[in-house]
Backbone:
């Protein structure tokens, strides 16, 4: 998909807090999730990351998700997920309802998305 095509993917605008780990760093960061789609998200926070950095983000109701920093501008940055998620699960209330999420099983000849 080209950059223009990926901008058309449905994404939910929301405000969630999440934990972030950057590959090679021991520190854990708290970031704001500004929007979320099946294939990625925009985060905001004081994190020193570079485009292409491997990260893990802990999303509410889903758990830890692997990704790559796709872009960075100021204190906001985009993360492309390695495996797609269901953004509705992360958006669901954590009280009063039971939400279950099963990550997709890896495909044997899966290709990574180009960012």
Residues:
């Amino acid at each position: 998909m080209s950059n223009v095509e990926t901008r058309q993917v449905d994404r939910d605008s929301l405000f969630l807090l999440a934990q972030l780990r950057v590959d090679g760093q021991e520190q854990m960061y708290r970031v704001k999730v500004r929007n979320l789609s099946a294939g990625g998200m925009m985060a905001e926070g004081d994190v020193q990351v570079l485009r292409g950095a491997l990260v893990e983000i802990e999303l509410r109701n889903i758990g830890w998700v692997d990704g790559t920093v796709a872009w960075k501008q100021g204190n906001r940055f985009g993360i492309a997920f390695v495996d797609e998620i269901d953004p509705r699960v992360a958006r669901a209330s954590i009280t009063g309802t039971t939400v279950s999420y099963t990550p997709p099983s890896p495909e044997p000849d899966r290709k990574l998305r180009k960012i």
